[in-house]
Amino acid sequence: MSIIVNIGAAKTRLSELIVKVEAGEDVVIARDGEPVVRLSRVQRDSDVAAAVAEIRAARAGLEPTRAEELIAWRDEERRFQ
């Protein structure tokens, strides 16, 4: 869920908004109700390494995905766009 705040509120609540972003919230700063900026967490190498390790653990013991399967999944997604 996105949190949308106007610039003035963002100025006074910046520390609070940063804590929310660090926790995974999506924060959008708006001017006169129109979104202009999105605050996002800086991705660290350790975040990527942890994600890769999680994927490898989930895939452990499974058959490798064949190229034909990947192509079929890609084409299936395109049919719904």
What gyration radius follows from the Cα positions, in whole Å? 19 Å
* Terminal residue distance: 24 Å
- CATH architecture classification: 3-Layer(aba) Sandwich
Specify the CATH class: Alpha Beta
CATH evolutionary superfamily: YefM-like domain
Largest sheet data = 3 strands, mixed
Q: What's the order of the H and E elements?
A: EHHEEHH
Give the percentage of residues in beta strands: 15-25%
Total count of domains: 1
Overall average residue pLDDT: 90
Shape, please?
A: elongated
Oligomer: single chain
Helix amount:
40-55%
Question: In which order are the strands of the major sheet placed?
Answer: 1-2-3
Low-pLDDT sequence parts: none
Q: SS-based structural class? A: alpha+beta
The number of E-state strands comes to 3
